[in-house]
Write a structure and sequence with these properties.
By secondary structure, this protein is of the alpha+beta class. Helices cover about 50% and strands about 30% of the residues. The protein has a single domain, classed as 2-Layer Sandwich (YaeB-like fold). Strand 2 and strand 3 form a beta hairpin. The two termini are about 25 Å apart.
């Protein structure tokens, strides 16, 4: 199976920084699993929009098979789950543009090294 690159959106990175180290470590472990298995977690209506749950938290991510990339876009508690899902769906085009740019930049960096 192909390995995927996992990226974090700016919003996700800012949000996760507010959580304590144990939560950040759990997110890192999920991220490690996504490298080898982008279908980890539960689909949210489609194969490419997924969530991974632990404790009372949910990590939301988008899988881009054509780019071999996973984009971590949000974290929420159960209480804000639907609001977060709705917001992500509104910004799908924005996320697509962002991930394409990140993948391009990452390839350029890989080629330089």
């Amino acid at each position: 199976m192909k390995k995927y690159k996992v990226f974090r959106s700016v919003g996700f990175q800012e949000e996760i920084a507010k959580y304590d180290k144990s939560i950040q470590d759990r997110v890192d472990k999920i991220e490690d699993k996504l490298v080898d298995n982008p279908e980890y977690g539960n689909p949210l209506g489609t194969k490419w929009f997924r969530e991974s749950r632990f404790e009372n938290y949910r990590i939301y991510y988008l899988v881009y098979e054509d780019l071999q990339a996973v984009y971590l876009v949000a974290i929420s508690g159960k209480k804000d789950q639907q609001k977060t899902i709705n917001a992500i769906r509104l910004f799908l085009e924005f996320f697509r543009d962002e991930i394409e740019k990140l993948v391009r930049e990452n390839k350029s960096q890989d080629e330089e090294s």
